[in-house]
Each structure stands twice: as structure tokens, then as C-alpha cells.
Amino acid sequence: MSFVFLGIDHVQLAANEGCEPDARKFYGELLGWTEIPKPESLRQRGGVWFQCGTHQVHIGVQKNFLPATKAHPAFGVQNINLLRQHLIQHNIQIINDDARESEDCLRFYLNDPFGNRLEFIEWGVVRDE
């Protein structure tokens, strides 16, 4: 083949109209992601973009919005237990998932302010026996 996949450029999550303040508070302030200016040609659509590690997360406005409750992005994290504590201290409900407990990872889920499911996972974790 003459083409090559390089990986994921960005993840698009949807939200309701007027979502920008809540997105900035959750993704920008709580998670600490840096907001990326949207291209001028896309600003009239609403929404907000963030940098997450080497990837981007775009929060886009969708008419008749319904949250993604099964399909979800999974974000790799270092020191996931510190993230878990940080989120709990800010009254974010964490959904623990031990379905992969035989693997060397820790993970949990949560819902963003719009009801979208997000997974956070850390690989290379040695579990206490």
C-alpha cells in the first residue's frame, strides 16, 4: 500500500448549544487541558477545542444532542490514582471498571458535563496482590 495511517489526529465529542462555558470549566480548568483556538472559518459553529497530550479533543455543537453513553474515547494517563482523587475532590462521580483486572492497567470512567462517557486508563500498573 502507498498510504500509511499515522494514528488519531483528534477526537470529536458532541454537546448541546451553549456548551462552551461548561466545556472550558470541565476540560480546561478541571482536567487542565489547554484550549486551542478554532480556525476562523469554524468559529461560527460553536464548540471549543482542547489539547490532550499529543492529541486534540474537539467539543462540537450538535442539534438534537444526545450523549454518547457507550462509544467513548479512552485517555492514557500517568498517575491515574492522583487524577481519580482530584476528580473525586471536585465531586465528579467515578465509575470504576475492573473488567480488565488481569491486565497491567487501571481504568475508570466518568461522564462529562454533557453526559458523554470518557475512559481514563494507565498501563504498566503493578497491582497489589
Key structural traits:
129 residues, 4-stranded mixed beta sheet, Glyoxalase, Glyas_Bleomycin-R_OHBP_Dase, 2,3-Dihydroxybiphenyl 1,2-Dioxygenase, domain 1
Please explain how this structure is put together.
The chain is α/β, with parallel strands linked by helices. It has a single domain, classed as Roll (2,3-Dihydroxybiphenyl 1,2-Dioxygenase, domain 1). The protein contains 2 helices and 8 strands, in the order βαββββαβββ. The strands form 2 sheets. Strands 1-4-3-2 form a 4-stranded mixed beta sheet, covered by helices on one side. A 4-stranded mixed beta sheet has the order 5-8-7-6, with no helix packed on it. This is Glyoxalase.
Entry summary:
The protein is an alpha/beta fold and 129 residues long.
CATH architectural category: Roll
> Strand share of the residues?
25-35%
Annotated CATH homologous superfamily: 2,3-Dihydroxybiphenyl 1,2-Dioxygenase, domain 1
Helical residues, percent:
10-25%
Number of helices: 2
Number of strands: 8
What's the mean pLDDT score? 93
CATH C-level label: Alpha Beta
Number of domains: 1
- What is the chain-wise order of helices and strands? EHEEEEHEEE
Strand order of the largest sheet: 1-4-3-2
| Molecular shape | globular
Distance between the termini: 46 Å
Largest sheet: 4 strands, mixed
Write down the Rg: 16 Å
Class derived from helix and strand content: alpha/beta
The low-confidence parts are: none
In the CATH hierarchy, the third-tier topology is known as 2,3-Dihydroxybiphenyl 1,2-Dioxygenase, domain 1
Please render the helix and strand layout as text.
Blueprint (H helix, E strand, L loop, with lengths): L9 E6 L4 H11 L3 E3 L11 E5 L2 E7 L12 E3 L3 H10 L5 E2 L8 E7 L5 E7 L6
Parallel strand pairs: 1-4, 5-8
Antiparallel strand pairs: 2-3, 3-4, 6-7, 7-8
Protein name: Glyoxalase
Organism: Cohnella silvisoli
